[in-house]
Amino acid sequence: MTEQQLIDLGFIKEDVPMEESWFEVDFHYYTLEIGDICLISNSSDLIQKENDWLVKIFDHDSPVFYRINELQTLIKVLKNNIS
């Protein structure tokens, strides 16, 4: 999926300046909080092509969402079931 698709879904850009990271490069990633669940993207320093963005549930290695339609479905289900 693309960075713009994440933005369109309501993800918030989190900038990490070089001074605050362990790496010698500025980078950013995206998050979306739904209830007490945080969805998080990979970071911009790992992107080689515009459509290389992916999303995981924070602190979990799987599942990994590569397709926008699957991520949209997950977001809809989570938002519809927040108590």
Q: What percentage of residues falls in helices of 4 or more residues?
A: 10-25%
Sum up the overall morphology in one term: globular
Instruction: Specify Rg, calculated over alpha carbons.
Output: 13 Å
The domain tally reads 1
Q: How far is the N terminus from the C terminus? A: 29 Å
Strand content: 25-35%
Q: What is the N-to-C order of secondary-structure elements (H for helix, E for strand)?
A: HEEEEEH
User: What low-confidence regions span 5 or more consecutive residues with pLDDT below 50?
Assistant: none
Number of helices: 2
Q: Largest beta sheet, briefly?
A: 5 strands, antiparallel
Strands, count? 5
Q: What number is the mean pLDDT?
A: 93
Widest β-sheet, arrangement of strands:
1-2-3-4-5
Task: Please identify the structural class as seen in this structure.
Answer: alpha+beta
